[in-house]
Amino acid sequence: MLQLVNLSKDYSGRVLFANISWHLRKGERVALIGENGAGKSTLMKIIAGLEESSNGDIQLAKGARAAYLPQDGIVSSGRMLFHEARSALSELLVLEEELHRLGQELEQMPHDAAGHDALLARYGELQEQFRHRGGYTMEAEIGTVLKGLGFSQEDWHKDCGEFSGGWQMRIALARLLLQKPDVLLLDEPTNHLDIEARNWLEQYLCSYPGSVILVSHDRFFMDQVCSRIAEVWNHTISDYHCSYSTYLIQREERVSALREAKRLQDEEVQKTEDFIRRFRYQANKASLVQSRIKQLEKVERIELPPERKKIRFQFPDAPKSGRIVLELQGLTRSYGSNVVLNKVDLTVEKGERVALVGHNGAGKSTLMAVLAGGEYQEGSLKQGHNVVADYFAQDQANVLDATKTAYDELYSDCPYDMVPKLRDILGAFLFSGDDIHKKVGVLSGGERNRLALAKMLLRPSNLLLMDEPTNHLD
């Protein structure tokens, strides 16, 4: 279905991957994994034809199409949701229009007219094509996909421009699924989905007739959907034909075996080098020494891949709060006639870890924003004694200044006494060396989220309010 031949990509001398040769069979569902910034999204864009590779070729099966869903950034407006989704089936719509036109011609043409039989044959041929490609069930298919992704029937008649960013990505996902490309490329498809929509997508992809390559950091989703793991690491791709959970075990076994093989090789090389040094100048051992030198030259040295970086940090010591941290009584928040929170009572005590759950649109983010100091209409919200809150919004990474470097972005919001620790904080979140001078605009989604999380450590707080903090994180 898809073949990568000696594919390479670099940005201004920074190599993402080099001479990758890899293939994808029809019907396979592959998880593309790797650290943030390893090049996963770039590789998918190259396969989709949205970006050029530095070297190498991409070969798709004859007539096959690849289509790509990015992490974010797609916005639709000016059309009703149902019509926007229906527009994804453009080829079927062209067939439908031609069938309608031919039907009208046949109605007006006498049965014994010249060309009637040819027109009828053409109509029958198109009708069979239309049926075979699902033309008579396309509206039901559109309804199934929209419902599965969480859109209610009332939403179908709304203008797409009325939907927020997360719902915009669902619209884009619906369009892509309806197109049914031969190679479906999904970049973090579950980021904007609630649990019900995520479960529906999981089942949909398990029965998808084409091939799927997806980037995800949802280990349970990958375990259910994917039977093959392709790891982008150290400028190449390594394949594991198993689930993600099994991959974690196999990868550790592979690296351990490589370490042991390198240890044994190093011991053997050391012995050979010692022999050469001891007997190099003894005439009666000259032939043996030369033999060992040639033997040493033929040894293919085992290279250990670099250790994966790990995030290590400590929260700064925070002031102690009272026992009651937050208390809501009869709190109401509405947008016009739409009441999102209706007389909510909630008490949060010191040391508690609270998860807010519910379907999309239930009001989780609205409640979070209210807890962080947002507006509400009725009731009361009291913060406890000595509470210092820090809020990580769902779109927190988008608040960052794209024109600043990672270091400058952190520096601009940094208390004076924390300035000497900035490089340590950036290093803890895997921004090392020249990475700290990268512009925020060129960082991957995961790198931007890491930077936004790093900003939370600049000021000690004893209440963390976090809305989808793991989106985009490896």
Q: Any key phrases for this structure?
A:
flat; six-stranded mixed sheet; 474 residues; three-stranded antiparallel sheet; single chain; 14 strands; alpha/beta
What does this protein structure show overall?
It is a single chain. By secondary structure, the chain is α/β, with parallel strands linked by helices. It is 38% helix and 20% strand. The protein contains 15 helices and 14 strands. The strands form 4 sheets. It has a 6-stranded mixed beta sheet with strand order 5-6-7-3-8-9, with helices on both faces. Helix 7 links the parallel strand 6 (183-187) and strand 7 (211-215). Helix 3 (90-108) packs antiparallel against helix 4 (116-132) and helix 9 runs antiparallel to helix 10. The longest helix is centred in the middle third of the chain and has 36 residues, at 244-279. The two termini are 28 Å apart.
Q: What structural category arises from helix and sheet content?
A: alpha/beta
Q: Number of helical segments? A: 15
Low-confidence stretches: none
Q: Report strand order across the widest sheet.
A: 5-6-7-3-8-9
Number of strands: 14
Helix-strand string: EEEHEEHHHHHEHEHEEHHEEHEEHHHHE
Please give the alpha-carbon distance between the first and last residues: 28 Å
Q: Tell me about the largest β-sheet.
A: 6 strands, mixed
Percentage of residues in helical conformation: 25-40%
**Rg on CA atoms, Å:** 29 Å
Q: Approximately what portion of the residues adopt beta-strand conformation?
A: 15-25%
Shape: flat
Instruction: Output mean pLDDT.
Output: 84
